[in-house]
């Protein structure tokens, strides 16, 4: 390993069963229950961990949370339909091409966590744009 790498992202959720149903449908994988309040989904080399905190330990989330989980997908059109069918809190009107070349759309999971789905062959990983 040449340096730090991201291997797990925690996605705070208010109801683990709702999270499992939503992410299982969106990701096309049932994932794995790790604990009563924790469910892991493997996304490439990164684990997306849905974690339901006890009610007394939940913190209010600001309206504009800067954390966005970006997910590379093989077919952004099919994924858009999957996410729409899974019941997001909010979803873009459609797929857009960003000025840096990525084809993507944004959605919020049922708990308001922001997600972005990007067509795999258009990923921008840094460097000059254009």
**Number of separate domains:** 1
Average pLDDT confidence is: 87
Major sheet details: 5 strands, mixed
CATH topology description:
2,3-Dihydroxybiphenyl 1,2-Dioxygenase, domain 1
Order of helices and strands: EHEEEEHEEEE
Which structural class do the helices and strands define?
A: alpha+beta
Shape: globular
Structure summary, number of beta strands = 9
Name the quaternary structure. Answer: single chain
Distance between the termini: 31 Å
What share of residues are in beta strands? 25-35%
**Poorly predicted residue ranges:** none
| CATH class category label | Alpha Beta
Helix tally equals 2
Radius of gyration: 15 Å
For CATH, the homologous superfamily is named as 2,3-Dihydroxybiphenyl 1,2-Dioxygenase, domain 1
CATH architecture heading: Roll
Instruction: State the share of residues found in helices, binned by percent.
Output: 10-25%
List its salient traits.
130 residues; alpha+beta; 2,3-Dihydroxybiphenyl 1,2-Dioxygenase, domain 1; 5-stranded mixed β-sheet; 4-stranded mixed β-sheet; 2 helices; 34% strand; Glyas_Bleomycin-R_OHBP_Dase; VOC family protein
Structure in a nutshell:
The protein is α+β, with helices and mostly antiparallel strands. The protein has helices at 16-27, 76-86; strands spanning 8-13, 32-35, 38-43, 46-52, 69-73, 90-91, 96-97, 103-108, 114-119. The termini are far apart.
Q: What do these coordinates show?
A:
The protein has 130 residues and is α+β, with helices and mostly antiparallel strands. The protein has a single domain (8-54, 64-122), classed as 2,3-Dihydroxybiphenyl 1,2-Dioxygenase, domain 1, CATH 3.10.180. The chain is built from 2 helices and 9 strands, in the order βαββββαββββ. It has helices at 16-27, 76-86, and strands at 8-13, 32-35, 38-43, 46-52, 69-73, 90-91, 96-97, 103-108, 114-119. The radius of gyration is 15 Å and the shape is globular. The chain starts with 7 loop residues before the first strand and ends in an 11-residue tail after the last strand.
């Amino acid at each position: 390993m040449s340096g730090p790498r991201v291997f797990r992202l925690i996605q705070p959720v208010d109801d683990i069963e709702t999270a499992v149903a939503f992410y299982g449908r969106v990701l096309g994988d049932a994932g794995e229950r790790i604990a009563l309040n924790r469910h892991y989904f493997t996304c490439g080399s990164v684990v997306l961990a849905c974690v339901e905190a006890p009610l007394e330990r939940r913190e209010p989330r600001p309206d504009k949370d800067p954390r966005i989980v970006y997910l590379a997908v093989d077919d952004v059109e099919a994924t858009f339909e999957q996410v729409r069918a899974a019941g997001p809190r909010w979803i873009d009107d459609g797929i857009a091409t960003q000025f840096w070349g990525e084809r993507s759309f944004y959605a919020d999971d049922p708990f308001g966590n922001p997600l972005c789905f990007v067509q795999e062959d258009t990923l921008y990983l840094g460097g000059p744009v254009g």
